[in-house]
């Protein structure tokens, strides 16, 4: 079946649940996902966000690793130009060992202007920093001395997965897709047209083709009464969509998110599907065995009680049919 993951970005606007409640719920929901055989949990990274968007995904990943046994820990995305690649290599290597080899890494160049300003990074340098950073990660995970920016470097221990954890790249431009073909195992995107640039570059390089994995829209909720569920979720869904929309507009990037004021129009767009159990089964099956679908039970600080209802409905009425 498709791979089902929890999505945790820990946004916490003023109208959401308090931050302690949300983080405690994230740990409990990850343990639940592990017990119910979900594929993994996906962490995101952003900075300078008023709503507390998760800035330290490796820390949360370590806490969840300690509460789970099988759940894959996917970091999507780590904003590499805003991080020291040597420190990222060390942290992820330790986490990979602690978790028994469950780390998956998706790297991104970033796009939010405020983040580059906060860390003193020139956005025009992000392509070069991605290339340099990925080379440093791969060299670091070999566990042998190497040179980084003219200085000696050594990263140990090595990660448990060899030669390194699965290493993907994300992005929103053809250049990012071509860079992913040269430097990583997969290009993480929901955009099939953009993925074709990745495929074409791999073919040009003589590399084996990699099948496209349907990511859905990054959201899926299941309820017996989708109308009522949408009504109580609308403020949280609108907050997320508009937050991403503002970031995308500020960066002039192509995105599936735009600012909206009408919750009904947003629902009709299909970006945030809230489905009955039978509809959810069909929706997941239609995306094929390689699909990567995300449940988002704490979206924008939504009270955990609502998220728990959605997860239990999914476990009781969707999972058994998929298996």
Notes on the protein architecture:
The protein is 46% helix and 14% strand. It is built from 12 helices and 11 strands. It has helices at 19-35, 57-67, 85-98, 113-119, 126-140, 174-183, 192-204, 226-251, 263-269, 277-286, 304-317, 319-322; strands at residues 3-8, 40-43, 72-79, 103-108, 146-148, 151-153, 167-170, 186-188, 221-222, 274-275, 292-295. The strands form 3 sheets. Strands 8-7-4-3-2-1-11 form a 7-stranded parallel sheet, covered by helices on one side. Helix 3 (85-98) packs across helix 5 (126-140) and helix 6 (174-183) crosses helix 7. It is globular and about 60 Å long.
Number of DSSP helical runs? 12
Spatial ordering of strands, largest sheet? 8-7-4-3-2-1-11
Task: Calculate the terminal CA-CA distance, rounded to whole Å.
Answer: 7 Å
Number of strands: 11
- Characterize the main sheet: 7 strands, parallel
Summarize the structure.
The protein contains twelve helices and eleven strands. It has helices spanning about 20-35, 55-65, 85-100, 115-120, 125-140, 175-185, 190-205, 225-250, 265-270, 275-285, 305-315, 320; strands at about 5-10, 40-45, 70-80, 105-110, 145-150, 150-155, 165-170, 185-190, 220, 275, 290-295. A seven-stranded parallel β-sheet has the order 8-7-4-3-2-1-11, covered by helices on one side. Strands 5-6 form a two-stranded antiparallel ribbon. Strands 9-10 form a two-stranded parallel ribbon.
What is the topology?
Layout: E1 3-8, H1 19-35, E2 40-43, H2 57-67, E3 72-79, H3 85-98, E4 103-108, H4 113-119, H5 126-140, E5 146-148, E6 151-153, E7 167-170, H6 174-183, E8 186-188, H7 192-204, E9 221-222, H8 226-251, H9 263-269, E10 274-275, H10 277-286, E11 292-295, H11 304-317, H12 319-322
Parallel strand pairs: 1-2, 1-11, 2-3, 3-4, 4-7, 7-8, 9-10
Antiparallel strand pairs: 5-6
């Amino acid at each position: 079946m498709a791979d089902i993951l929890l999505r945790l970005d820990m946004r916490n606007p003023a109208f959401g649940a308090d931050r302690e409640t949300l983080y405690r719920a994230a740990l409990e929901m990850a343990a639940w996902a592990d017990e119910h055989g979900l594929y993994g949990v996906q962490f995101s990274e952003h900075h300078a966000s008023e709503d507390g968007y998760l800035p330290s995904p490796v820390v949360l990943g370590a806490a969840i690793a300690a509460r789970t046994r099988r759940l894959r820990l996917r970091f999507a995305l780590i904003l590499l130009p805003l991080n020291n690649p040597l420190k990222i290599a060390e942290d992820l290597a330790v986490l990979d060992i602690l978790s028994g080899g469950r780390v998956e890494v998706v790297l991104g160049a970033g796009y939010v202007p405020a983040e580059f300003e906060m860390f003193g990074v020139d956005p025009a340098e992000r392509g070069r920093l991605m290339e340099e950073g990925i080379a440093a990660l791969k060299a670091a995970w070999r566990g042998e001395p190497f040179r980084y920016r003219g200085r000696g470097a050594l990263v140990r221990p090595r990660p448990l997965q060899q030669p390194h954890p699965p290493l993907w790249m994300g992005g929103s431009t053809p250049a990012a897709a071509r860079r992913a073909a040269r430097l990583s195992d997969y290009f993480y995107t929901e955009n099939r047209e953009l993925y074709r640039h990745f495929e074409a570059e791999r073919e040009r390089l003589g590399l084996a083709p990699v099948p496209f994995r349907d990511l859905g829209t990054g959201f899926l909720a299941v309820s017996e009464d989708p109308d009522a569920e949408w009504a109580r979720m609308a403020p949280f869904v609108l907050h997320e969509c508009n937050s991403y929309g503002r970031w995308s507009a500020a960066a002039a990037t192509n995105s599936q998110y735009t600012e909206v004021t009408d919750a009904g129009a947003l629902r009709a767009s299909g970006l945030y599907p809230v489905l009955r159990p039978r509809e959810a089964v069909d929706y997941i099956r239609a995306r094929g065995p390689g699909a990567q679908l995300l449940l988002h039970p704490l979206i924008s600080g939504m009270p955990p009680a609502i998220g728990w209802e959605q997860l239990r409905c999914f476990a009781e009425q969707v999972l058994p049919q998929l298996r």
